[in-house]
Write a structure and sequence with these properties.
Layout lengths: L1 H11 L1 H11 L2 H4 L1 H7 L11 H12 L9 E8 L3 E10 L2 E10 L3 H22 L1 H6 L1 H15 L2 H14 L20 E5 L3
Antiparallel strand pairs: 1-2, 2-3, 3-4
């Protein structure tokens, strides 16, 4: 059943969760029932240790965590690629709450290994089945790989957020959190905190 598939993908780890989310967008390939069930697939994961998060920040900015953030709390959310911490920065003589998104340590290596296996399976399927060739699984895995690669560079996410904020600046009913560019790097994204 799709419910068992969802549980299995969660147990297999972050790359498989992303694969399931991707499959949810392809009812033409997996069928409507499975695609609908996979839409509920969440990439809620256990957070990685606080010390590792702090080490990622220090490495990203090549300075101690305390010189980047005035305070740095524990994870408030964890997903397949990153987790988010609430922190504070000193701004204009006052403390300001921020959300800090941190890339999971080792996640790129994990995704590369899993995606290599996906490519192998897709190539094998295409070589053995004309029906599989029609569905182009190698191209589907390549699309997933490109998407994941973009998600793992938070500078791209920051740029997209800034562009979206600019595009909707006249819309009073919609708000995009401001990017703190001084505290954003490839592995760390800092945004204003919005409750």
């Amino acid at each position: 059943s799709a419910e068992r598939l969802t549980r299995a993908l969660n147990r297999l780890g972050p790359t498989y969760v992303k694969l399931g989310q991707f499959m949810a967008t392809r009812p033409d390939v997996v069928g409507t029932a499975i695609a609908t069930d996979l839409e509920s697939l969440q990439d809620k994961m256990a957070p990685f240790p606080q010390a590792e998060a702090e080490a990622v920040v220090a490495a990203a900015f090549d300075k101690p965590l305390a010189s980047v953030y005035a305070s740095f709390g524990s994870a408030v959310a964890a997903a397949s690629i990153a987790q988010v911490h609430r922190a504070e920065v000193d701004a204009d003589g006052a403390r300001k709450a921020v959300a800090v998104k941190i890339l999971r340590p080792g996640i790129e290596r994990r995704f590369k290994s899993d995606l290599d296996a996906f490519f192998y399976a897709a190539r094998k399927a295409e070589s053995l089945s004309l029906e599989a060739q029609r569905l182009r699984p190698v191209e589907a895995v390549a699309t997933l790989a490109r998407s994941v690669a973009m998600e793992m560079d938070f500078r791209l996410e920051a740029a997209a957020l800034s562009e979206m904020a600019e595009n909707i600046r006249e819309d009073a009913d919609f708000r995009v959190p401001a990017v703190d560019w001084d505290r954003t790097a490839r592995d760390v994204l800092t945004l204003e905190w919005i409750d």
